[in-house]
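Q: My collaborator sent me two sequences in one message, no labels, and asked for predicted structures for both. Can we handle them in order? The first one she listed is below.
A: Yes, handling them in the order given. First sequence, followed by its structure tokens:
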Amino acid sequence: MENMKKIQMVDLQSQYLKIKQELDKAIMDVVSSTQFINGPAVKIFADNLATYLNVTAVIPCANGTDALQIAMMALNLQPGDEVILPAFTYVATAEVIALLKLKPILVDVNPKTFLIDTNKIELAITAKTKAIVPVHLFGQCADMETIMSIAKKYNLFVIEDVAQAIGADYTFTDGSKMKAGTIGTIGCTSFFPSKNLGCMGDGGAMFTNDEQIAKRLKMMANHGQSIQYQHDEIGVNSRLDTIQAAILDIKLKHLDEYAKARNIVADFYDEAFKNHPNLLSPVRVKHSTHVFHQYTLQTCGINRDELRKYLAEQNIPSMVYYPIPLHFQKAYSTEQFKEGTLPITENLCKCVISLPISTEMNEEQLSYISSHVLKFCKEHTQEKSN
């Protein structure tokens, strides 16, 4: 193992080297043009992504958090309006709700899939509820057919957070398919470098099949103006720069290939940890393909943090997404959501661990990682039984 390539959570350098010639040319073409803001590459990428997603409009912006905020602004959500979201998610999902003086309503998740528990959504709806934000966590879609049915019943907007699942396919009960992020009112994504479709800095986008909403999204992202120097509403300044758009347009051509590579890694881990008493592999839902932004195990009967420490000693990185529940965070702590009110989320934060997964991993690395995870489990289970 001495000559084994260094293991990283995401090997962006190897990914870059594989398509270096394409990327370098795309970057230098922008540099040569000097059209760094709203250059032609931005529209080209937006159009190509719209074609890939089979959606009417893609509106690029500066980052995924902005995408969520602009979406809520464009839908004219007002202070005091309630927005339902899963409790087990990254802070940005709740952050934009709070920033706009809306009220985040946390709903627990399914303990096996990590996705919002659709059986609990209706229980959280009140007269003030205006939107649902399903998060397609770790790479697969929430149960959008059920969510859209609930939204229709109560006349609610649906804003899909697809930052971790771009490229995933959702299959409806009638057999029809749609891409993640194109089913709800608006889809929002991030192009953070480690994402499945990532740039070399910050970036994000919103997508919709509603032309009027698309116009509002574009206006809100551009200082609230649809005509230059005419500001009809208060907006923000959020745009994807031209170099990042050019990079993303190259990577978009490889997105499905990246998903296949990630699934090969996930299949290897699945087989290695199959039916293990201390490890629960990610459960793949029937209604969605999985693009495996993360490969997240649940630990049982072993100490997750001790496992992480052991892996680090073997030069194996790992991450915990997410170590502290949203309702335990000082900024989002309320009387409504006290300790014990969201038990699945609280438990997941104690037991989940994400292993390295990227497009360029090889079998030697995967064998090394999985063998050490299994070794730790065996040794620490024996310790308990002795």
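Q: And the one she listed second?
A: Here it is, processed independently of the first:
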Amino acid sequence: MELVPWRPFGEVGSFRGEMDKLWDRFFGQRPLAGGLTEEWLPSVDISETEDKLLIKAELPGLETKDIKVNISGDLLTIKGEKKKEKEEKDEHHYCMERYSGSFERSFRIPVDVKADKVEAVFDKGVLKVTLPKVEKAKKKEIEIKVK
């Protein structure tokens, strides 16, 4: 007979792992998951108005030359690299929470947009990408007539 150590939370840990995988498949990579690796993912807000989509990405410490924005079909991609600061030889780190390295985030655009009219503005560490909708994608209220 073989003795096996009892791990009361072993099943919970594997259940947690499966839930994390399911979450990642449904919503994509979680931004905070990059904190344990060299890759980091900027936080993003996505909003919609009647005539446009707006994507705002927090990119502190970057410069315009470090960022690329591309649109191909219904996929918008924001990528770039945050360079690591040069360290002093006699400097000792006790805690390092700031991210560095490359990133890439892609978003499926749920409506048709005017790709030639997309604008990207970078100001105070925030990238704002405006995607104007095409006429047919705009919500249109239909008047109800009385007979």
